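User: Second chain of the day. Same drill as before.
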Amino acid sequence: MSPSAQNEVAQHANGTNGSSAVHADVPGQIETRLTLSGKVIAITGANRGIGLGIAECCLVNGASKVYSIDLAEPGDEFNAVAKRFNGKLFAVQANVTKEETVTQAIEQIVSEAGALHGMVVNAGRTNHKSALDFTQEEIEALFSINLFGAFYCARVAARQFIKQGTKGAIVFTASMASYRPNKRVPSAPYGASKAGVRNMTHTLAMEWAKYGIRVNSVSPGLVNTAMTYWVPQQPDWEQQLKYYGGMPRLAEVQELGGAYVYLLSDAASYTTSIDIPVNGVIGIIKVR
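Assistant: Same format as last time:
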């Protein structure tokens, strides 16, 4: 290779393309490892279920401290994980539908841990029934936590990142129901609320990119939690699996964690405004 060609390759590798200008927001050292080393992560609704599985994965991947922001008191499942990761998993009580209580929770976390680096907006609820059977109270309850609460939590986190001068990461838990309906377990309000979360992901990513804040989401399919215990108990479950195709089982909560860890990590420093479906193909209606 000629000296001029070698120089051109070096310039492309360095991202300069022959120019001496370097963008101010490009770090001198790009992180290529999937690690959360030294990071403080907050996860809403992490006292059990998917949120607790995400917390466990964050801790396995080096997170300094993980805080669950939840309305309920932590139970045996949470305490067992906290015991495994002694002094690294904590619970803070807050109502995610009330922005002021989330702000107080984040202030407590920062006071104790010194900073906040990542926020997983995970708290949510589901209710599967015919659209004609939903009451007004049920619809409003779904939207209050799944959409409005998600917005409040993301905004509180963004304000803290800006205050700190931190290029933080926000990851929403959306759902495969945000893409298309599940024929066997329909829920128009649930799907609509999670579709709103995915749209909000893109809009907030655009708005907050100037602060170096990345906003993404993960869309789980059917996951083995207390809310889905009944799914494999259906008498035609085996037939459903053949109909759906894909992996013939529900996901375990820890199997979602890799997507969240990536999006929270500095290895995803140029990843924003995306959704990662983790669904094993099952749980979605086939188009024929």
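The CA atoms of residues 147 and 193 lie 6 Å apart.

User: Great, on to the next one.
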